Amino acid sequence: MASTLRIGTRKGLFIYEKSAAGWRCGAPAFLGEPVSMVAVDPRNGDQYTALNLGHFGVKLHRADGGSTTWTEIAAPTFPTTGDEDGPTVEQLWELVPGGDRAGTLWAGTIPGGLFASTDRGESWTLVESLWNRPEREKWMGGGYDQPGIHSICVHPGNPHLLRIAVSTGGVWESADGGASWTQIGRGLRAEFLPPDMAHDPAMQDVHRLVSCPAAPEQMWIQHHNGIFRSDDGGHNWTEITDVKPSVFGFAVAVHPREPGTAWFVPGIKDEYRVPVDGKLVVNRTRDGGKTFEQLTAGLPQGPAWDLVYRHALAIDAGGDLLAFGSTTGNLWLSEDQGDHWQCLSNHLPPINVVRFD
Amino acid sequence: MATISFTDNLKRHVDCPPRELQAPTVMDALRLVFAENPRLAGYILDDQQRLRKHLAIFVDGELVRDRVRLRDPLQPDSRVDVMQALSGG
Questions:
Q1: Do the Cβ atoms of A77 and B48 come within 8 Å?
Q2: N or C terminus: which one in chain A shows less Cβ crowding within 10 Å?
Q3: Which of A30, A33, A49, A56 best tests the B interface by mutation, with the highest count of B CBs <10 A?
Q4: Does A50 touch chain B if contact means CB atoms closer than 8 Å?
């Protein structure tokens, strides 16, 4: 069971540690700064925190494992094009370790650039093979002005096999470490598009994509208008309908060993996004989406208006520990797969990302 | 000599004391500063070397016009102030 929980918020990084006295938070790091993403490289303990300084741009910091001393390193940056309207990284929206050795990282960004580093973030390279895909013309902003890569799934047994998701831009796969890409995602449906375009894989608003670590071909999507499951690595998707109280949400977490077990935080769709009837619930399925349980023990049942962002629900590698946080600054943790929740704080800044080490 | 100074709000991120220099344009002045302080560049300019959208630069009290190439001319005794806009908070 993990004992460290990182919370990236609008006003800093908060790290909770489990002790005999329970989960306690130390002094914040980067106080006052918006933290958009956090990551730990399990191979060497390197810690990463991405900032989105509104005036001064995206920054990335690294600390050695176990250290609280942060050093600014290079942030992913687009090459200069000479065009007046060339791209610039607006937000670092996903950061995952990858490759077959420590220090290899993948970063997803708004406006949709995928970047790779092989030297612990000292330098980054734009994955041009994806950036230059003509289908990128169809990508659109999903909640932001520009599209963004928010999910990167590296196959645990094959570091060259990658699946990423774009909001909005669908799901993409590379089988050669990013040298080439294929659009996948048959069966995804965009309710917000005209019927003849609704199944265009390049126009899907995937909110979050996850894969089961023990069975990586088993994947889940929380989409703008529903929940989808794949049994073949994201090539084909089955829509899960009739989910109470709602199929809408941003986040999804999958059990590390049981691919049919997944958690969602439902909300009223589209512009509302708040809990249905003002009751905060976590939905759990243990049978691949055939049935769902609404988990409420320890969660406010009215009225509560918490919104949980796509990176703000996490499960640890053990599979029993879950945590989620809201834009209202509330943070909950469960040690029994969601049967019971304890509130760790009602007073954090708006929460962007929640991750266990 | 012209002078360039930076908003106090940058100091918690990167050292950037005021500097005297001679440069024909705003971008030339920034390049001189960045040559000595490379980390500062990414705080002022975006990936395409444009002035970041929530920053403003004043030359002798006037807002720069050319936010893309920063070719606004400097006088030998110009005062350049790099400020953060109130937007972007």
A1: no
A2: N
A3: A56
A4: no
pLDDT of residue A274: 87
pLDDT of residue B37: 96
* pLDDT beyond 70 at B87: no
Determine contact: A80 vs chain B, CB below 8 A.
yes
Q: Answer yes or no: do A89 and B47 touch at CB < 8 A.
A: yes
**Residue B18 Cα to chain centre, angstroms:** 11
pLDDT along chain A (357 residues), means of 10: 95 97 96 97 96 95 96 98 93 94 96 98 98 95 91 97 97 98 97 92 96 98 96 98 94 98 91 87 98 98 95 98 98 98 98 98
Q: Which of B42, B68, B88 sits opposite A55 (nearest CB)?
A: B88
CATH class of residue range B2-84: alpha beta
What's the gap in Å between the CA of B32 and the closest CA on chain A? 19
Calpha distance B39→A341 (Å, rounded): 44
pTM of this structure: 0.96
Domain chopping of chain B, boundaries: 2-84
Give the torsion sign (CA, A317, A328, A280, A205).
negative
**How many Å apart are CA A113 and CA A130, to the nearest integer?**
8
Considering only CB atoms, A57 lies closest to which of B9, B42, B89, namely: B42
Residue A315 CB-half CA count within 13 A: 25
**What ipTM, to 2 d.p.?**
0.91
Q: B23: which 2 tokens?
A: 């440069």
For residue A192, the model assigns a pLDDT of 86
Does A55 contact B9 at a Cβ distance shorter than 8 Å?
Answer: yes
CA B45 to chain A, closest CA, distance in angstroms equals 8
Q: Check whether B88 has a pLDDT greater than 60.
A: no
pLDDT at B89 > cutoff 80:
no
Q: Of the candidates A261, A357, A348, which has an alpha carbon nearest to the alpha carbon of residue A314?
A: A357
How would you label A276-314 residue by residue, b for 16+ Cβ within 10 Å and e otherwise? beebbbbbbbeebbeebeebeeebbeeebebbbbbbbbb
Cα–Cα distance for residue pair B17/A356, rounded to 1 Å: 40
Show the tokens assigned to B37.
């302080």
